[in-house]
Amino acid sequence: ADEDRLRQVLINLLGNAIKYTDEGYVKLEVTVESRPAEASEQLLLHFRVRDSGVGIPPEMQEAIFLPFYQVDGSSSRRHGGAGLGLAIAKRLVELMGGRIWVESQPGRGSTFHFTIRCRPAEVSEVAPSKASISRPSAGPLKILVCEDNPVNQQLIRRLLEREGHHVRVCNNGKEALRALEEECFDLVLMDVQMPEMDGLQATQEIRALEQAIQAGELPAPKGSSYENLCERGRIPIIALTAHAMSGDRERCLAAGMDGYLSKPISAAQLLLEVARLSPKCPTAEPRQPVT
What we know:
Layout: H1 3-19, E1 26-34, E2 43-51, H2 85-95, E3 100-104, E4 110-118, H3 130-133, E5 142-146, H4 150-162, E6 166-170, H5 173-182, E7 187-191, H6 199-214, H7 229-232, E8 237-241, H8 248-255, E9 259-262, H9 267-277
Parallel strand pairs: 5-6, 5-7, 7-8, 8-9
Antiparallel strand pairs: 1-2, 2-4, 3-4
């Protein structure tokens, strides 16, 4: 099995479970369904993501794995997302030789199952993660992470704090706009698809405000990310998207974003983009990297 694919499947399933569970539990279970008779054969692993959330009606349990399908398709739906997470998870599981399905009852929670095949690793094969082999240096920086998936939030926060960066997390574009007026950030990681206000609209509003301040039409809020724009230049914004489709990168750059990362997020690519777009004079105070 591919560790990056497996990580993204778990991020998608756990993120959905957390998003749709207001109280109760979210559990991850893994069992070995079949053990190989010989070392050259593969294990069959069975993963279960259980939650006590809202549940899924029986008539929707196959459709949820279709691209862009929303259980609540209304424009005012409570939760964000493009409806691609489960479709991507299904495709990744199938690429790893497994299958995915759901058992659920409305009001009684859901259990998402998936299986994958993998060869047992020997101790000598265990190596450091790719990100720890060669990492570009940037910082310490003060970074705003705008992402509505709680699992992705924690993953990105952990990767950045490990490098010594200061991180603040927000859940949608409106929160990002407020945060930029309250604090001075060196860089923004902006998810494209979020509830209330998406990343493209938020970026367009940030760029419009920067232009108004640089033109002298509006004062820059004291202590905000918009202070000293003449010296700092515009606020670097990196797009985070699960779409990875033709034209997505161009739409992000046209909205005013400076970089582009597709999910599943690679630690090495994330740190490389952060280093590439980091300002020459960071605002953050030095801190010890998290180990």
